[in-house]
Every structure is written in C-alpha cells, then in structure tokens.
Recover the amino acids of this structure.
C-alpha cells in the first residue's frame, strides 16, 4: 500500500494569543492519527481559488472541526440563532474543496463541524442550537475532558460505519452545539445518540464519504482508530 497524501483543513483565528496577526491552527492529534494509520498529512490554508490545485496533490480529504458554524443562510434558514459564529473564508474554502473532492470521488472524512459542513454540501440542513431544538438533549458539549467519552452512539447495522467499527455502539466524546437535521439525497444516517441527535452520516455511492459528529482523532475507542485506518486505506487506492 502506498502512503496516501491526506489534506487536512486548518482552523483560523483572529489576532491575539499566538500572533498579533491572523493565524492558522490545528490540534496535533489530527495529524498524529493520519500518520499512525499510514498517511502523510498536509495542511490546507483557506484559499478557495486554489482548491483544484490542492486536490491535484492529495489522495484524501479531512474536514476538521472548530468552534464556529456554517452560515445558516447556506442551508436556507431565514433565522440565525444568537449562538451562531461563522468563519466565512474558512467555510468558503471547505465548501470549494469538498465539492471538488466529490467531483473527483476522493475519499472524504468530515469530523464534528466537518460533518455538519458535509451535510450542507450534500443538500442537508442543520440544527442551529441543540438545547433549543432537541427536548431532553444530552450534554453534547460535554463537561468532562475531550480525552474521555461523553456519551454513547448507536451504530446502524448495514452501514459503512458499522462495517468499519464492527460494533453496534460506540463511546464517543462530544464537543458540539449543532448537528445534522434534514439529510440530503443519497445520504444515510449511520449513528445516533440516545436523544435522537444524528451522530454520523455517509454516502454509499461514493468511494469513501463519512462524517462523524465526534472526534475520532482522540482514539477513545478501537472504533475511532478503525475509522482512520479505513479512511487511509481507501485513500491509498
């Protein structure tokens, strides 16, 4: 198996903290998870007009998470919840490169906010703030450390995720206030939290297209490491 080149989207921050100028950021464990599974991570700055050039260089795409939201107008919402925070250039780049990856049928893995963007690209909508829309919701922004599980998800049998993880339930961490709501055409829900919140989506017709609402780069369970293994294997062929 060759070593596939994996494009990993960066987060962006305003001046302050690391630099007095705008800066990019990424937790190291995203890259560590790619390397452990046999891939070569490269980081993708937010240059929408360069999306095709980046796609010429990579074998698979990871859309990472972050403390921000997709603009609700992008999925047809007329109202915007007070908690919504956008990063417009990041989203513009991720939309461009994700759509390009679909056109080329490159393997795509969307993580947390990356799953939410994936659902929007595929024609779906989002819950803008879980506590306001889901009765009896779990603590999807868990109070305990992200290195620990926050709740469990049910894995739907017969899905790619179930074939990868070989289990009916996974213990996952949870760091989100939004989630997929309506799903797009051809999209399959493959994981659900106990409160009914969608935790995983996939597109069966694609080479590899998987979105998970948790953060498998933390490797909390063997299922998390299997997700990266399967994604890197798909990207190597």
């Amino acid at each position: 198996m060759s070593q596939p080149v994996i494009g990993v989207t960066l987060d962006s921050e305003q001046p302050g903290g690391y630099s007095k100028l705008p800066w990019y950021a990424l937790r190291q464990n995203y890259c560590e998870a790619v390397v452990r599974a046999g891939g070569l991570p490269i980081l993708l700055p937010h240059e929408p007009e360069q999306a095709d050039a980046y796609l010429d260089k990579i074998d698979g795409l990871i859309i990472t998470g972050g403390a921000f939201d997709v603009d609700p107008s992008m999925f047809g919402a007329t109202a915007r919840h007070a908690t919504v925070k956008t990063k417009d250039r990041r989203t513009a780049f991720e939309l461009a490169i994700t759509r390009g990856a679909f056109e080329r049928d490159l393997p795509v893995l969307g993580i947390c906010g990356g799953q939410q963007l994936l659902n929007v690209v595929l024609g779906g909508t989002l819950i803008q703030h879980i506590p306001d829309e889901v009765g009896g919701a779990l603590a999807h922004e868990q109070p305990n450390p992200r290195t620990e599980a926050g709740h469990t998800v049910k894995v739907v049998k017969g899905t790619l995720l179930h074939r990868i993880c070989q289990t009916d339930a996974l213990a996952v961490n949870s760091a989100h206030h939004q989630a997929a709501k309506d799903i797009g055409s051809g999209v399959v829900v493959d994981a659900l939290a106990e409160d009914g919140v969608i935790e995983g989506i996939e597109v069966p017709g694609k080479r590899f297209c998987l979105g998970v609402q948790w953060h498998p780069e933390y490797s909390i369970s063997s299922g998390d490491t299997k997700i990266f293994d399967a994604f890197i294997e798909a990207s190597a062929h």
About this structure: The chain has seven helices and 13 strands. The CA atoms of residues 73 and 153 lie 29 Å apart. The radius of gyration is 17 Å. The chain has a mean pLDDT of 97.
